[in-house]
Write a structure and sequence with these properties.
This protein is an alpha/beta fold. The protein contains eight helices and nine strands. The chain has one domain: Rossmann fold (3-Layer(aba) Sandwich), CATH 3.40.50. The chain has a five-stranded parallel β-sheet, with helices on both faces. Helix 2 packs across helix 8. The protein is globular. About 25% of the residues are buried. The structure holds guanosine-5'-monophosphate. Guanosine-5'-monophosphate (5GP) binds next to strand 5, strand 6 and helix 5.
Length: about 220
């Protein structure tokens, strides 16, 4: 690592308050949230992706415990009753949720956490944690979104239609839901990742609690 790179990473780390922050990334299915997030995770220190639980079927390339915790509906409901979820929502007739244990252990360890969750979950997190940063990732257009969903080839014709309908519905409330937060467009992957990185870095300098005094000022 070059000296300049080491210096900028450590100054970034020192700007992190002791408790990690939540970066809640939402956006229509197929917009490319996963690819953008992976680029950012590879380039920034002290940030991780939260692994959600879901009742939807595992896709061939997905790994249980890494992509999602794949649960039966009965198991998911039991965990809801036992208050194991920080937030949860139903999307396209399947249940998805962020485990409270993941949020508490990682942010407690000072790690920032990316929650890649739907807009209903984002609304819940905003109420639970006013310091959470909400980011909505939109496609450059509806036709491009449809193309990306079809290219992914993991969806049936029916789920493509359902997911496009959800995207159109969501887009209507973005202006009010995300006031004071961020809306970014994923046209070119690398450029979108740069914007997301800039948001994370800038937010690490936002004063949300007691400021950490520079050495000698304590
Ligand atoms: P997919 O089935 O394509 O993996 O995800 C469908 C939708 O569920 C996406 O919008 C994704 O962001 C959302 N999602 C994934 N995990 C969670 C979660 O833990 N909570 C909520 N509320 N939504 C989630």
């Amino acid at each position: 690592m070059s000296r300049q790179k080491a210096d900028s990473s450590s100054s970034e780390l020192s700007a992190i308050r002791r408790k990690g922050r939540l970066f809640v990334i939402s956006g229509p299915s197929g917009v490319g949230k996963g690819s953008v997030i992976n680029l950012v995770l590879a380039q920034l220190p002290s940030i991780e992706l939260s692994v959600s639980a879901t009742t939807r079927a595992r896709r061939p390339h997905e790994i249980d415990g890494t992509s999602y915790h794949f649960l039966t509906e009965a198991d998911f409901k039991q965990r809801v009753n036992q208050h194991e979820f920080y937030e949860h929502a139903s999307y396209n007739n399947r249940m998805y949720g962020t485990l409270r244990s993941t949020v508490e252990s990682r942010t407690g360890a000072g790690v920032d956490l990316i929650l890649e969750i739907d807009i209903q979950g984002a609304r819940q997190v905003r109420k639970l944690d006013p310091t959470a940063v909400l980011i909505y990732m939109q496609p450059p257009g509806l036709a491009e979104l449809e193309k990306r969903l079809r290219d992914r080839a993991t969806e049936t014709e029916e789920t493509v239609r359902e997911r496009l309908a959800i995207a159109q519905e969501e887009q209507k409330s973005i202006r009010t839901d995300y006031r004071g937060h961020y809306v970014i467009t994923n046209d070119v992957l690398e450029q979108c990742a740069e914007v997301l990185k800039a948001i994370v870095v800038a937010e690490r300098h936002r004063l949300t609690g007691q400021p950490e005094a520079p050495q000698g000022f304590e």
